Every structure is written in structure tokens, then in C-alpha cells.
Amino acid sequence: MVGFAVVGLGMGRGRAKLITQTEGARLSCVCDLRDELAREVGEELSCDWTSSLDDALARDDVDAVLVMTPSGLHAKIGVQVAHAGKHVITTKPMDVSTAACDELIEAAASTGVLLGIDYQSRYVDTNFRVASALQQGLFGRPLLGEVRFKWFRSDEYFQHGGGWRGTWAMDGGGSLANQGSHLIDLLLWFMGDPDEVFGDASIMNHDIETEDVGLALLRYGNGARGVIVGTTTFPTNAYFSAEVHGTDGGVLIDGALDGSARYFGDDLEQKLAAIDNPIHNIVEDVVSAVTHGTQLRVDGLEGRRTVALLETIYASSKARKTLSLGQSS
Length: 329
Hints:
Largest sheet: 8 strands, mixed
CATH architecture of the largest domain: 2-Layer Sandwich
Oligomer: single chain
Number of domains: 2
CATH superfamily of the largest domain: Dihydrodipicolinate Reductase, domain 2
Low-confidence stretches: none
Number of helices: 12
Strand content: 15-25%
Distance between the termini: 48 Å
Radius of gyration: 20 Å
Number of strands: 14
Shape: globular
């Protein structure tokens, strides 16, 4: 059994429950600064609880730690976890800057622990099959990849939890960095890293530091294009989708989190249905990696790619010009 601790019980509450439902995994401990919440979740899931990260990391029955705190704390806590000799899994995005990501990558490498990022969209059957099919050339030459979401977030959402959402220091961006990072990760998985980026990030309808409307146009070295559209200003949560097509077919993934999709091309749906997805969530992935030595689906270097693209989108928007990936001005 692989022993887990979960730190941060907002999003972490659901992940803690998932651990209890996964074969080969054991929930040893949950941790949150709020004693009442830690106790509540611990009692609900029949595990130990604490408000002290040091106490959680000192446990011999903890092999891996899920860091489910605000984004700007992922690397700081992750480095501490790594130096305690525990495997590190952060929720998305990996952190708010590539500099912070690099610190965490180095800490994991120097201590010999696993480092992974919890991008649940990578475990959805449809998304896995599309990524595999693109690698096999089943779409022909890729021409265009798009990711889009139109959601609503209230002012109260940004004020909740101490107001860390919508800030540069803790959220690392707005609609693209928080809600949109799953889709940006998917686009990078499908299409690869772009050569050039033009971004436009704006505050349209919220009192926040970061964008609530984010757009980006990507250009790839092979001539393909990419499009990113994300907002939290829509009147309701309307859709969360990814699309890709090439010279021999295309797919519209209407639900990037549930896998609903439409296929276009000769027998393309049947060909993709034959592709097996062996891992279905981050907990299964960690158990497999620890017990069988398999590769995590999103390791530190993979997780860093989304943060690098976000940084370039924001730099491009500020400079109002196209930038090369990784260029800051």
C-alpha cells in the first residue's frame, strides 16, 4: 500500500476521498491550517488529521503528499515535502512562475522523489486517445488546435478563502491560469510547444488583479496554429472544450473533463476507441509509479510547460506584440 497525506482541504477534500477509493492506496493523514476542517475531514474519511505540515511529513506511513493549497504555495510546500523524502504531487498549475517550478524540480531531483502535477484532463479516456492518435499520425498533419471555456465566477468567489484567487502572487493569473490551465495543458499535450505567442489578457468585469478574459494565438514551427479563449465573465458555466484537426480528420471534445466528443474522418472514432487508457486518475498514477516504476503522466518538466506558456501569454499581452515562447518582453 502507498501511504498518502493530503495538504489543503479545499480541493484536497475530494482528492482525499479518491485515495480511499483507489486500490493500492491508503489515506494516512489529512492536513489543513484550519483545525476544524482537518478534524471534520479526518473523521469523515476515518484517517488521522493534523494542522501541522511538519507532523504530517514526520509520519513513516506517508509515502506521497498531495499539495492542494493555493497555487503560489505549491513549490514552497513541495520543496519541504521533497526534503522530507516524500513524493510530491501538486494540484494545477504547478506554481505561479517558472522560477518556482524550477526550484521544485531541482528539489525533487536532488532528493530522488517523484514529482507530478494533478491534471485530471490527462486521465480522461477521450483526451488520452486523442493525444495518442496525434502521436501515431491518425489525424494526418496537424493544422489547428483550439481550447475554449466560457464560465461564470462571482465577486464572492474571488473574495472567498482570503481573496487569493485573481492575484498574481497566489493565483499566477486569472481565467487562463486558474480555470484554463487544464485546457492549456491539453493543448500542449496535443500540439506541442509553440514557437510564437500573441496574448491578450484583460480585466472586463471583476475587481481583481488578473484577467477575467484571456486570449492567445499560437504559431508552431510546422505551420500549425493554436487558439486559446478563456473567460469567467460569461452569464453561466457554458462550456469547457478542446478541438483539434489535421489533414485526415478532427475531433471536437465538447467536454474536456467528461470526454464527450464528436469525430470527423474515416473510421476515426473506431480507431481511437481501440486505444487503451491504463490509468484513470492521479492516485492510480502515483500507485503505479511507486509500485511498478511507471512514468507519471505529468511530471515536473511537463507541468512546467503550462506555466511557461502562461508567462509568455501575459508578457505578450503587456508588450502588445508577438513573443517567442519563454521570451519576457
